[in-house]
Amino acid sequence: MDDTHRAEFRELLAQHRESVLRARQRSDEDLSDLASARSAATADDEHDPEGATLSDEWSRLAGLDAEAERELIAIDEAFARLDNDTYGVCAGCGKRIPVARLRIRPTATMCVECASRR
């Protein structure tokens, strides 16, 4: 990978990291608000006629937080691959991952063909 593409992907990964961190902060704030609501609510939120229960919302937000954590790990791993010159090399077949794929999914570790076999 040439220096121009390397710089482009560093910037893409940095932007993606910031976006994930902002989303994670929002979900953490929502979880905090929900924790307050749960402590103020009745113990029987499973029969709330207003729609989704507090428990359902808690599960949804916790899932978003876990997904953000996985994405941050993938971003950090992509930065490490950039540093050791393995970024853009398919972990499945060893061929170059097309730049177009990396622009769409900068944390990709496999080419489309290998990823589709998974």
TrEMBL record:
<dbReference type="GO" id="GO:0008270">
    <property type="term" value="F:zinc ion binding"/>
</dbReference>
<feature type="region of interest" description="Disordered">
    <location>
        <begin position="21"/>
        <end position="56"/>
    </location>
</feature>
<feature type="domain" description="Zinc finger DksA/TraR C4-type">
    <location>
        <begin position="86"/>
        <end position="117"/>
    </location>
</feature>
<dbReference type="InterPro" id="IPR000962">
    <property type="entry name" value="Znf_DskA_TraR"/>
</dbReference>
<feature type="zinc finger region" description="dksA C4-type">
    <location>
        <begin position="90"/>
        <end position="114"/>
    </location>
</feature>
<dbReference type="Pfam" id="PF01258">
    <property type="entry name" value="zf-dskA_traR"/>
</dbReference>
<keyword id="KW-0862">Zinc</keyword>
<keyword id="KW-0863">Zinc-finger</keyword>
<keyword id="KW-0479">Metal-binding</keyword>
<dbReference type="InterPro" id="IPR037187">
    <property type="entry name" value="DnaK_N"/>
</dbReference>
<feature type="compositionally biased region" description="Low complexity">
    <location>
        <begin position="33"/>
        <end position="42"/>
    </location>
</feature>
<protein>
    <submittedName>
        <fullName>DnaK suppressor protein</fullName>
    </submittedName>
</protein>
